[in-house]
Amino acid sequence: MTFPLFLQKLRRNALLTAAMTASLIVSAQDTETVFIEGNIMKLSDLSDIPNAAIRSADGTISAVSDEKGWFRMEVPRQLSYVLVAADQYRTDTLHLHTGNATSPYSVYLQETTELLAGVDYTSRTGSTEISTLGFQKMEVIGSRELMKAACCNLSESFETTPSVDVGFTDAVSGYKQIQMLGLTGSHTLFTRENIPDVRGLAAITGLTFTPGTFVESMQLSKGTGSVVNGFEGTAGQINVEWIKPFDAKTPQWMLNGYQSHQGRSEGNIVYSGEINDRLSTNLFLHGKSNWLNLDQNSDGFLDQPKGETFVVGNRWFYFSPKNIEIQGGIKGTYMTNSGGEVNHFTREIPRFSWFYSQEVQRGEAWAKIGYMNPVKKWQSMGLQLSGLYHKQATAYSGTHYTADQQSFYANYIYQTIINNTNHVIKFGSSFIFDNIGESFSSREYKRQEIVPGAFAEYSYNYLSKFNVVAGLRGDYHNIYGAFLTPRLHLRYAPNDRNAIRASIGRAQRTANIFAENFAYMASNRQFIIHSASGSNPYGLDPEIAWNMGLNFTRKFKTGYREGTFTTDYYFTHFQNQVVVDIEHPREVSFYNLNGRSYAHSFQAQVDYEIIPRLDIRLAYRYYDVKTTYGNTLLDKPLISRHRGFVNLAYATRSGWKFDYTFQVFGPKRLPEHSRDGSRLIASSATPSFTVMNAQISKSFIEDVFEVYAGVENILGNMQHHMILMSDNTASPYFDASLIWGQAMGRNIYIGFRYNIPKK
Fold first, then answer.
1. To which H or E segment does residue 569 belong?
2. In this structure, are residues 696 and 658 in contact, taking their beta carbons and an 8 Å threshold?
3. Could you write out the DSSP letters of every residue in 168-224?
4. Which one of 365, 622, 678, 710 is least enclosed by Cβ atoms within 10 Å?
5. pLDDT tens, position by position, 391-438
């Protein structure tokens, strides 16, 4: 399944500086040599395949594809073919035409269980990798990185990732939310294998519905992405890859158990089976229970809610001999939580007490179909389908919120070339259907959103040095009307160790004001909506923003050890925004922006192996986020301008692993809180604070069995006065939503992982 598209005859010495980071340049002595290059892609959906091995039959000449599937290698002119293989794909033969070809090669691999042995991969599989290759800067977070913090769900998966800020939503629900580029998680596009996943009513809660043990890797990119993925995603995209059953390295059974002294118990089971060489399946099971009445700061409220979560999933892969790949799956989630005042749970006949409860029922189904033209192998198409049902009921004492959502998503993608693979074009169409009904404080909010759209994206590649990706999509919203989403990405790499990237793009989304801000229900604030139009959702116009970014990545070597330095700057400018105004202590107001709103984000990061098997990650992040509240431009509250980050990871040859993370957060602005002329909060800004986590693990029997233990928040520091008026919940100033620090004290945990290999 190969097609020769480019072969350029150049002298060897002139191209050494343009070789890709992942390539192994092999000299062909005593004969004339040429360079070959190309792109290795997945047959079903034309996604890039990193770490694919390209080698001669005798193994003396080899290369490895980079993060975006590109390779370059030097071969003897008389060589007729090379083998192309990856751990998750069927080995293919690339036939070379070194005499007259003038374009790069395109190789399309079909997923299977085959493994190419004897090839050394250039990246550390399972850790974090930032490459100089690809038009967009992407952090690949592997399973090994995820296990550093024994993460239990997606909201807890970014403790060792400086690009993402994680904080609690409030002091009673136990939910965590993320921030990228100084923007809330609702401005980030979450996808599961490039299908939209966490959105709508699940904007906050949805991060808890994917256990970390289900995840093979995550790809994190900042700024607006490809128009192929939709019109949302102002701050960036986080794509989650689940464990593949046909991967030869995937165990047949994966068992995981977790227990913390804070009363959290978890168990996970993942089964990966192959019916035959064309059919395979995964079964995913997850259970969690919080069973302890925990009040570490003695404020009379549970630090985390009690409750249970159950997740079950099943998916299938089928590889047709007619160049068709089909996958489909289902997933069900049930969650129930209850929290609030401790005496609500400890008294046999409790007096009136403030309580919190939530129940979520969610069902999902999806399918992906890919096809490649058997004659014109550079032409392929893919279809993505998904549907979901989501229902939840939430109570914050006297405040009740119920909601349900039915959604359908379809995305068709067609890819071909113009003359050669220097010029690649993708186009297609999409369809989004959302039916959402909400009830809050006895008021009903219903809407039905129907959004058909079409897109086109052109990519130009020049000798792996210069890339241009320009995309445009047009969508028609049944409520907001037609709109355009243009996006542009540029990359320049003067050599294989340096890359400069720039991007600009537009994004639009419908704000879900209750689901995204239910933390303010943990207070006695009045919810006030200042409508712009009675026919729009909540009477508000859509959010529109432009994002511009510039980043630089450099690979370096010091003391014979490799390292990576990366720095980036992003600017987000809102043309329109749904402002969440908490400047009044007794209100939370929602209205469309009347003034300026923007976010500056700067980050610098260094990854380096200090000594053999000891890695260090240093990072500094700066935010300048301002929004017009009323008529005044103010710093957005509860966002730290400064963040410092240190992570140390050490692994011994005998299977011991040690990990330590230190973070320091600068002050955050607090909104005005006064009563009768006196402040309820002593200062207008929070103090700086630090967070330290550590974990140790030991593997046995070649990683078949592993035990781990760790401590989160080692110093046990918690935010002071986490709940305003906690002794008088009837007060109009009662507020559990102003969380800026640690809402949980020291947490000691143990666990195990047991992998049963395939027979």
1. strand 561-576
2. yes
3. ES-SSS--EEEEETTEEGGGEEEEETTEE-S-GGGTTGGGGGS-GGGEEEEEEEES-
4. 678
5. 999 999 989 999 999 999 999 999 998 988 789 999 999 999 999 999
Rounded-to-integer distance, Cα 724 and Cα 351, Å: 21
- Can you tell me the distance from the alpha carbon of 494 to that of 17, in angstroms, rounded to the nearest whole number? 8
In one-letter notation, the amino acid at residue 336 is: T
Beta-carbon-side half-sphere exposure of residue 410 (alpha carbons within 13 Å): 10
Which uninterrupted H or E stretch holds 344?
Answer: helix 343-346
Q: What are the structural domain ranges in the chain?
A: 2-109, 242-756
Average pLDDT over residues 525-548: 92
Q: Which residues have a Cβ under 8 Å from the Cβ of 678 and sit 6 or more positions away?
A: none
Rounded to whole angstroms, what are the CA distances from 65 to 55, 127, 147, 231, 541? 11, 17, 26, 30, 45
Nearest to 584 by CA among 519, 521, 517, 629: 629
Quickly tell me which residue has 């804070």 as its tokens. 262
Q: Are 547 and 571 in contact (CB under 8 A)?
A: yes
**Fold of domain 2-109:** Immunoglobulin-like (2.60.40)
Residue type, 214: F
pLDDT digits (tens, 9 = 90+) for 172-210: 999 999 999 999 999 999 999 999 999 999 999 998 999
Q: How far apart are the first and last CA of the chain?
A: 30
- The string over 62-81, giving b where at least 16 C-beta atoms fall within 10 Å of a residue's C-beta and e elsewhere, is bbbbbbbbbbbbbbbeebee
Element (H or E) spanning 310, and its range? strand 306-320
Whether domain 242-756 has CATH 2.40.170.20: yes
- The pTM of this model reads 0.83
For 371, list phi and psi in degrees, rounded to 5. Answer: -145, 140
What local confidence, expressed as pLDDT, does residue 678 receive? Answer: 59
Write out the two tokens for 693: 């986590």
Can you say whether residue 124 is alpha, beta or left, with left for phi > 0 and alpha for psi between -120 and 50 degrees?
Answer: beta
Residue 260 has pLDDT above 80, yes or no: yes
What are the pLDDT digits (tens) for 492-509?
Answer: 999 888 999 999 999 999
On average, the pLDDT of the chain sits at: 86
User: Measured in whole angstroms, how far is the alpha carbon of residue 556 from the centre of its chain?
Assistant: 27
Q: Please, what is the Cα angle at 517 between 513 and 521, to 5 degrees?
A: 115
Categorize the per-residue pLDDT at 674 as very low, low, confident or very high, splitting at 50, 70 and 90: low
3-class state of residue 29 by DSSP:
coil
Under 8 Å CB-to-CB from 654, ≥6 apart: which residues?
none
Cβ-proximal residues to 698 (8 Å cutoff; 6+ apart), any chain:
655, 656, 657, 706, 707, 708
DSSP state of 687: P
Contacts of 123 (CB under 8 A, 6+ apart): 22, 50, 51, 67, 129
Pairing of strands 614-629, 642-651: antiparallel
With helix as H, strand as E and coil as C, how does 405-432 read? EEEEEEEEEEEEEECEEEEEEEEEEEEE
DSSP secondary structure of 347-415: -SS--S--EEEEEEEEEEEEEEEEEE-SSSTT-EEEEEEEEEEEEEEEEETTEEEEEEEEEEEEEEEEE
